[in-house]
Amino acid sequence: MTKLVVLRGNSGSGKTTTARQLQRVLGPTALLISQDVVRRKILHAPDTVGTPAIAVMAELVAWGRARGFAVIILEGILKRSVYGEFLRDLKQAWGPAIIGYFDVTFATTVKRNQTKARSFIGHS
Predict the structure, then answer these.
(1) Is 119 a domain residue?
(2) Residue 25 is assigned to a structural domain of this protein
(3) How many domains does the chain have?
(4) Which Pfam families does the record associate with it (predicted)?
């Protein structure tokens, strides 16, 4: 039975690092779906209501479940104003799921982002 893990939080909160490490530990039995990869790199889509990233992520989650992955990890900022309905639908469809929110201060977010190759500060 496939388990769903959703990791949400602000930029620089550690969700991507945690998701990648979880996938490393679980190996090929885990499918990692990153909101940033889907939205920014594959679709070049805005992070606004109606973004096509929602449909693509929903399809990837369904695909992983149909293929029998032991764990599907969905990670991203996944802000409630854009992804709330999608997340509620996922939770309803899956029943028990592991859903975590990385709650760090804005100061921590800024500090961590300044260590990235491309900080969000000063970029649109």
Answers:
(1) no
(2) no
(3) 1
(4) AAA_33
Tens digit of each residue's pLDDT (9 = 90 or more) over 28-86: 999 999 999 999 999 999 999 999 999 999 999 999 999 999 999 999 999 999 999 99
CA atoms within 13 A on the CB side of 27: 0
To the question of pTM greater than 0.85 for the whole model, the response is yes
Domain residues for the domain of 49 are 3-14+35-113
Specify whether the CB–CB gap between 123 and 28 falls below 8 A.
no
| Domain-embedded: residue 20 | no
Do residues 54 and 38 lie in contact, with contact meaning Cβ atoms separated by under 8 Å? no
Q: Who's near 10: CB < 8 A, 6+ residues apart?
A: 77, 102, 104, 106, 109
pLDDT in tens, 22-31: 999 999 999 9
- Give, as one character, the DSSP assignment of residue 42: I
| Partner residues linked to 109 by β-bridges | none
**Helix, strand, coil percentages, rounded to 5, for the chain:** 50, 20, 30
